[in-house]
Target: Transcriptional antiterminator, BglG family
Amino acid sequence: MTVLNERQAVIVRRLLDGECLSVSRLAASFETSERTIRGDLTTVQDVLTRYGLGLSEAAGQGLGVVATAAQRKALLSSPEMNEMASGQRVPFLAARMLLLGTSTYDQLAELCGTSRQTVIRDFPGVERLLGELDVEVDREKGKGLAARAAEATIRQAFVKMLNSSSLGMAACERLACGLESCDAKARELIDEVSETLDVHFSNVRLLELQLGFCIMRCVQGHSLSLEPIPQDVLDVTRDANFGLYVTALSGYEADMSDKLCLIWTLLGAEKVNPGTRISSSVAAADAADYLLERLNLAHGAGSMDYERISRGLRAHLDVALYRIKNHIPIENKMLDQIKLCIPLVFDFTNRQMNAYGRLHGIEFDENECAYIAMYVASIFESSMGIEGKVKVLLACSFGTTTSAILSSRMRQFVPECEFVGPLSHDEAERYLDANGVDLVISTNDSIVGDVQTIRVSPLLQSRDISLIKSVLFQLTYTKMCRNFLARHMGMGCDRRVTLGDFISADDVQIASSSSGWEAAIGKAARPLVSRGSLEQRYVQRMVRAVKEYGTYMVMTPGTAYVHAGTNDGINEDCTALLHLRSPVIFGDENAKPVRDVVVIGVKSSESKALISIAKILSKETNRRRLEESDVDVDEILALC
Model:
């Protein structure tokens, strides 16, 4: 069964609410690429099909869904849809009541993707929250539940609700279903204010929803001109920039009292002037939430203790933002090692932090991103739980006592592993016929199955322990890479993306074999060096990186992704691939058989080459095709 991630579930709800959605609009809404959204829509289409529904395209409007009430209810209550977290339900229900006017328990349950009983249980909390904002709940017999208050109070309550830390952006996007007609006008006003006052808003999408609600209330005929204006709204006239705000809103036809409420909302929104920042602690919390939300959407790290992780990440980002704000450069002495040893995590973190920085006028350099990447790697490894454990089979051909000693010492020295055995050689063969393991540790030279095997002394000498720990460290990292890629692909990716989107035909070579792994790196990089995309010293640095840090570059079976630092001789973003008919043993220590060598030169923080290519080459079907003797360049470029 396909379970929709949080972003995909929001898309389904918006479609079922009758909204027409374009790929470009969704990409802007979720601050992600159009390619990712197209992948999401493929997954959404699969789920819709199971409920007898389908996406239809209206010329000039986007994609939509036509569903009966029964189909809508069945899908919203289905196991494919993520149920909203309990901590978000109460503020979401309260905000939704402000949007709906009158609603029933059943309608609210459908919007939350939960049961009517759950909404009834949560409703006292909804009433308390609204009451704190001076909004009452009326129960109208035969109609339902309605939020009642003065118009200014209704608008201010909605704005404050969305500013609440209890509501994440994904939950806020669910509220957008009733505001889509006002999005364009809200964005136009934000652009006018940004240009007139030369400011950047910290969360443009959140502000769009808040202004969109105020605009919608005006469209529905709820004008502030018909009632007294609250003092805090009137106080905006005392702001030093009040005249500039009025100028910025001059193109919006509305009563001045309604414009005052918009200015109150704009003044309350977090913003930065070019070259300055809001307090680093506030910004750190915002940046941490942004990064964790994207990590969760992309890789499903949501089972973690969010509050604990968030506190730690905020503390780290608080220091980083203080350095950026005060122009204090930092040199991360582990920068190259981090980029080489956890390249997937660094690539993900670097792109996310730069995306966040573009929204808020902050520039994160590679040194800061590398430190943040270490924290992200720790979060992801912890979230893997049992999936990340290395499974080790102990094969011992000696007696019971020796086997017991081997077992005891292994569990003492590497307790983080999952052990099977000790088993005799024959028992180990039978076990491997029916089960998988990551590593075999054996006391004799016999090969047990085709799994990587380490031969050790039955009593475990110090050199045995050092070798085992080194191999286990790399195996753990490899498992993390595979989990990272598998979960990233779970987001839904565009099936039309191929290797040819990242590598040109001139940069793909096929050879029967290579004299060694160093020669393979040199040959793979040759086209890039010949045309000046890379300098020869970059090749030398790649070879040195493998010798210094080991075979971390072999992130997916049979493929090495080799690269060096940004300042090691990259003149432009570039990628090349060498395919070997016969594998080469890659590396000096913990060597691994490699059939494909991918050379990557990344100069721009925007490049998605590494993670995109790794996702393609990690697929089992693609690996099997590359093992066939007749594969050619065109087929390699067509892999997707």
